[in-house]
């Protein structure tokens, strides 16, 4: 009887461990949850119920997309070389953007300040949905610690997930990824009226971005401490 219980416990532990190791990709998670989200979000936007739309987005992220692993897609850098997501070895703060979106007054300065401060601990990445010439001009606004990448949709032969990142969640959208590209959170930038004082805009953006970077650093620190504990004699 004891041997049977021991065998049952061992098998249960084996299957539980492997189940926890199973990973779902971002594209798979989208395929499962996006249709239902779109149905309800479209109605909320038609009704001009922005609060409901925001609530639906948060629900999609929290219950459908967090924990998924962002697919190892490829895009292009400013040297016109292909770059794969998995080439980044640090936690990643990835924002999708486009030239037709006008940043708020303090948005880029706040991001530059944080990239200057935490560039050795976090990979800051901006992914533009633009051609090379436009992206190169926009890149001049950003700190050297921020990697500027782009996707020219007229020449895009990247995986399906690249298009899904743009067309499913809107722009700009920020992905917070740990070292293994697991999604810790997906966020939209803070909104405020255009034309407010620079100091207020900077403070709003800096606080929002700081909380995102803190999440990446805390998660990375926790993983490091766990690894250290596991190898301790």
TrEMBL record:
Lineage of the organism: Bacteria, Pseudomonadati, Bacteroidota, Flavobacteriia, Flavobacteriales
Thioredoxin domain sequence ranges: 64-218
Coiled coil spans: none
Protein name: Redoxin domain-containing protein
Keywords, comma-separated and alphabetical: Signal
Organism: Salinimicrobium profundisediminis
One MF annotation (Gene Ontology) recorded for this entry: oxidoreductase activity
InterPro entries reported for this sequence: AhpC/TSA, Thioredoxin-like_sf, Thioredoxin_domain
Lineage top rank: taxon: Bacteria
Signal peptide: 1-19
